Amino acid sequence: MNRLFVVMLGCGIVFLASCQSDEKQAVEIHEKIETSSSYEQAFASNQEDLEEYREKEQSLYNDLIELDIQDKATLQQSIDDAETYIEEQQALLDEAEENFQKAYEAAASILENIEEMNDQELKGQAFELLEMMAERKELVDTFCDDYQHRLKVLASFYEDLNDDEWSHDELEAEEDRIDQINNRNQVMEDVIQKFNKRTEQYKEVESQYFEMVALG
Protein backbone atom coordinates (compact mmCIF):
# COMPACT_ATOMS: atom_id res chain seq x y z
CA MET A 1 0.00 0.00 0.00
CA ASN A 2 2.74 2.40 0.93
CA ARG A 3 4.60 1.60 -2.25
CA LEU A 4 1.48 2.16 -4.37
CA PHE A 5 0.77 5.42 -2.60
CA VAL A 6 4.33 6.63 -3.23
CA VAL A 7 4.07 5.71 -6.90
CA MET A 8 0.74 7.50 -7.28
CA LEU A 9 2.10 10.53 -5.48
CA GLY A 10 5.13 10.47 -7.71
CA CYS A 11 2.96 10.44 -10.82
CA GLY A 12 0.98 13.33 -9.41
CA ILE A 13 4.13 15.35 -8.88
CA VAL A 14 5.32 14.62 -12.42
CA PHE A 15 1.92 15.64 -13.83
CA LEU A 16 1.91 18.85 -11.79
CA ALA A 17 5.44 19.67 -12.88
CA SER A 18 4.43 19.03 -16.49
CA CYS A 19 1.50 21.44 -16.20
CA GLN A 20 3.65 24.07 -14.54
CA SER A 21 6.27 23.67 -17.26
CA ASP A 22 3.68 24.13 -20.02
CA GLU A 23 2.27 27.18 -18.25
CA LYS A 24 5.74 28.68 -17.99
CA GLN A 25 6.40 28.08 -21.70
CA ALA A 26 3.00 29.57 -22.57
CA VAL A 27 3.77 32.74 -20.62
CA GLU A 28 7.14 33.11 -22.34
CA ILE A 29 5.59 32.47 -25.75
CA HIS A 30 2.97 35.12 -25.03
CA GLU A 31 5.68 37.64 -24.16
CA LYS A 32 7.66 36.86 -27.30
CA ILE A 33 4.61 37.11 -29.54
CA GLU A 34 3.75 40.46 -27.96
CA THR A 35 7.28 41.67 -28.70
CA SER A 36 6.94 40.42 -32.27
CA SER A 37 3.60 42.21 -32.63
CA SER A 38 5.11 45.53 -31.54
CA TYR A 39 7.68 45.29 -34.35
CA GLU A 40 4.93 44.33 -36.78
CA GLN A 41 3.02 47.48 -35.88
CA ALA A 42 6.10 49.52 -36.76
CA PHE A 43 6.40 47.52 -39.99
CA ALA A 44 2.77 48.31 -40.86
CA SER A 45 3.41 52.00 -40.28
CA ASN A 46 6.44 51.80 -42.59
CA GLN A 47 4.25 50.22 -45.26
CA GLU A 48 1.69 53.03 -45.07
CA ASP A 49 4.41 55.66 -45.47
CA LEU A 50 6.01 53.69 -48.31
CA GLU A 51 2.72 53.58 -50.19
CA GLU A 52 2.30 57.33 -49.79
CA TYR A 53 5.75 58.11 -51.22
CA ARG A 54 5.41 55.50 -53.95
CA GLU A 55 2.19 57.13 -55.14
CA LYS A 56 3.82 60.57 -55.13
CA GLU A 57 6.85 59.32 -57.04
CA GLN A 58 4.68 57.43 -59.55
CA SER A 59 2.52 60.49 -60.17
CA LEU A 60 5.60 62.64 -60.63
CA TYR A 61 7.11 60.16 -63.07
CA ASN A 62 3.92 60.11 -65.13
CA ASP A 63 3.90 63.91 -65.24
CA LEU A 64 7.62 64.12 -65.95
CA ILE A 65 7.64 62.05 -69.13
CA GLU A 66 4.95 64.36 -70.54
CA LEU A 67 6.99 67.51 -69.94
CA ASP A 68 8.56 69.57 -72.70
CA ILE A 69 12.18 68.47 -72.44
CA GLN A 70 13.32 72.03 -73.18
CA ASP A 71 11.74 73.26 -69.96
CA LYS A 72 14.93 72.75 -67.96
CA ALA A 73 13.82 74.47 -64.77
CA THR A 74 10.63 72.44 -64.44
CA LEU A 75 12.45 69.28 -65.44
CA GLN A 76 15.15 69.82 -62.83
CA GLN A 77 12.63 70.48 -60.09
CA SER A 78 10.74 67.33 -61.00
CA ILE A 79 13.96 65.31 -60.99
CA ASP A 80 14.95 66.70 -57.60
CA ASP A 81 11.53 65.90 -56.14
CA ALA A 82 11.58 62.40 -57.61
CA GLU A 83 15.04 61.69 -56.21
CA THR A 84 13.86 62.87 -52.79
CA TYR A 85 10.88 60.51 -52.96
CA ILE A 86 13.19 57.64 -53.93
CA GLU A 87 15.51 58.38 -51.01
CA GLU A 88 12.54 58.45 -48.65
CA GLN A 89 11.29 55.14 -50.00
CA GLN A 90 14.72 53.57 -49.65
CA ALA A 91 15.00 54.67 -46.03
CA LEU A 92 11.48 53.44 -45.23
CA LEU A 93 12.05 50.14 -47.03
CA ASP A 94 15.25 49.52 -45.08
CA GLU A 95 13.43 50.32 -41.84
CA ALA A 96 10.51 48.08 -42.79
CA GLU A 97 12.85 45.17 -43.52
CA GLU A 98 14.60 45.68 -40.20
CA ASN A 99 11.33 45.84 -38.26
CA PHE A 100 9.95 42.68 -39.81
CA GLN A 101 13.24 40.89 -39.31
CA LYS A 102 13.02 41.72 -35.61
CA ALA A 103 9.38 40.61 -35.55
CA TYR A 104 10.36 37.34 -37.19
CA GLU A 105 13.28 36.73 -34.84
CA ALA A 106 11.09 37.35 -31.79
CA ALA A 107 8.42 34.96 -33.08
CA ALA A 108 10.95 32.35 -34.19
CA SER A 109 12.47 32.30 -30.72
CA ILE A 110 9.38 30.47 -29.42
CA LEU A 111 10.86 27.29 -30.89
CA GLU A 112 12.91 26.74 -27.73
CA ASN A 113 9.71 27.01 -25.68
CA ILE A 114 7.80 24.65 -27.96
CA GLU A 115 10.48 22.01 -27.54
CA GLU A 116 9.99 22.16 -23.76
CA MET A 117 6.20 21.73 -23.91
CA ASN A 118 4.47 18.48 -22.97
CA ASP A 119 0.92 19.12 -24.17
CA GLN A 120 0.95 17.86 -27.77
CA GLU A 121 -2.12 19.84 -28.81
CA LEU A 122 -0.60 23.11 -27.59
CA LYS A 123 2.69 22.12 -29.15
CA GLY A 124 1.06 21.56 -32.54
CA GLN A 125 -0.75 24.89 -32.39
CA ALA A 126 2.45 26.73 -31.50
CA PHE A 127 4.32 24.98 -34.32
CA GLU A 128 1.64 26.15 -36.75
CA LEU A 129 2.26 29.72 -35.60
CA LEU A 130 5.96 29.27 -36.25
CA GLU A 131 5.41 27.88 -39.75
CA MET A 132 2.99 30.63 -40.72
CA MET A 133 5.40 33.30 -39.52
CA ALA A 134 8.13 31.78 -41.71
CA GLU A 135 5.80 31.88 -44.73
CA ARG A 136 4.99 35.54 -44.07
CA LYS A 137 8.71 36.29 -43.81
CA GLU A 138 9.26 34.77 -47.26
CA LEU A 139 6.54 37.00 -48.72
CA VAL A 140 8.05 40.10 -47.11
CA ASP A 141 11.48 39.17 -48.48
CA THR A 142 10.04 38.77 -51.99
CA PHE A 143 8.26 42.13 -51.79
CA CYS A 144 11.35 43.94 -50.49
CA ASP A 145 13.60 42.41 -53.16
CA ASP A 146 11.23 43.56 -55.91
CA TYR A 147 10.96 47.00 -54.34
CA GLN A 148 14.76 47.35 -54.04
CA HIS A 149 15.17 46.48 -57.71
CA ARG A 150 12.49 48.97 -58.70
CA LEU A 151 14.17 51.78 -56.76
CA LYS A 152 17.54 51.04 -58.38
CA VAL A 153 16.05 51.30 -61.87
CA LEU A 154 14.25 54.52 -60.99
CA ALA A 155 17.41 56.04 -59.50
CA SER A 156 19.28 55.15 -62.69
CA PHE A 157 16.55 56.76 -64.79
CA TYR A 158 16.66 60.08 -62.92
CA GLU A 159 20.45 60.05 -62.89
CA ASP A 160 20.40 59.79 -66.69
CA LEU A 161 17.99 62.72 -66.87
CA ASN A 162 20.49 64.77 -64.88
CA ASP A 163 23.15 64.00 -67.48
CA ASP A 164 23.35 66.81 -70.03
CA GLU A 165 24.66 64.37 -72.64
CA TRP A 166 21.66 62.06 -72.65
CA SER A 167 20.01 61.21 -75.97
CA HIS A 168 16.35 60.73 -76.81
CA ASP A 169 17.02 57.10 -77.75
CA GLU A 170 18.67 56.44 -74.39
CA LEU A 171 15.83 58.14 -72.57
CA GLU A 172 13.21 56.12 -74.41
CA ALA A 173 15.11 52.92 -73.66
CA GLU A 174 15.21 53.85 -69.99
CA GLU A 175 11.51 54.68 -70.04
CA ASP A 176 10.83 51.21 -71.41
CA ARG A 177 12.69 49.72 -68.48
CA ILE A 178 10.76 51.91 -66.06
CA ASP A 179 7.48 50.83 -67.63
CA GLN A 180 8.47 47.20 -67.17
CA ILE A 181 9.18 47.85 -63.51
CA ASN A 182 5.92 49.73 -63.08
CA ASN A 183 4.09 46.79 -64.59
CA ARG A 184 5.45 44.74 -61.72
CA ASN A 185 3.49 46.92 -59.33
CA GLN A 186 0.60 44.51 -59.75
CA VAL A 187 2.89 41.62 -58.89
CA MET A 188 3.95 43.46 -55.74
CA GLU A 189 0.31 44.13 -54.91
CA ASP A 190 -0.42 40.42 -55.27
CA VAL A 191 2.35 39.64 -52.79
CA ILE A 192 0.91 42.19 -50.36
CA GLN A 193 -2.54 40.61 -50.67
CA LYS A 194 -1.11 37.15 -50.02
CA PHE A 195 0.78 38.50 -47.02
CA ASN A 196 -2.33 40.18 -45.61
CA LYS A 197 -4.39 37.03 -46.06
CA ARG A 198 -1.70 34.97 -44.37
CA THR A 199 -1.55 37.54 -41.57
CA GLU A 200 -5.28 37.16 -40.93
CA GLN A 201 -4.82 33.39 -40.71
CA TYR A 202 -1.81 33.86 -38.44
CA LYS A 203 -3.83 36.05 -36.09
CA GLU A 204 -6.60 33.45 -35.98
CA VAL A 205 -4.17 30.68 -35.05
CA GLU A 206 -2.53 32.97 -32.51
CA SER A 207 -5.90 33.76 -30.93
CA GLN A 208 -6.83 30.08 -30.82
CA TYR A 209 -3.53 29.24 -29.17
CA PHE A 210 -3.92 31.86 -26.46
CA GLU A 211 -7.49 30.71 -25.82
CA MET A 212 -6.18 27.19 -25.33
CA VAL A 213 -3.70 28.37 -22.71
CA ALA A 214 -6.13 30.95 -21.26
CA LEU A 215 -3.91 33.89 -22.23
CA GLY A 216 -4.84 36.80 -24.42
UniProtKB/TrEMBL annotation:
Superkingdom assignment: Bacteria
Entry keyword Coiled coil: yes
Keywords of the record: Coiled coil
A Pfam family reported for this protein in Swiss-Prot or TrEMBL: YkyA
Residue ranges that the Swiss-Prot or TrEMBL entry lists as coiled coil: 50-113, 171-198
Cell inner membrane is among the record's keywords: no
InterPro entries referenced in this protein's UniProt entry, alphabetically: Lipoprot_YkyA-like, YkyA-like_sf
PROSITE patterns referenced in this protein's UniProt entry, alphabetically: PROKAR_LIPOPROTEIN
Name of the protein this chain belongs to: YkyA family protein
The organism of origin for this protein: Salicibibacter cibarius
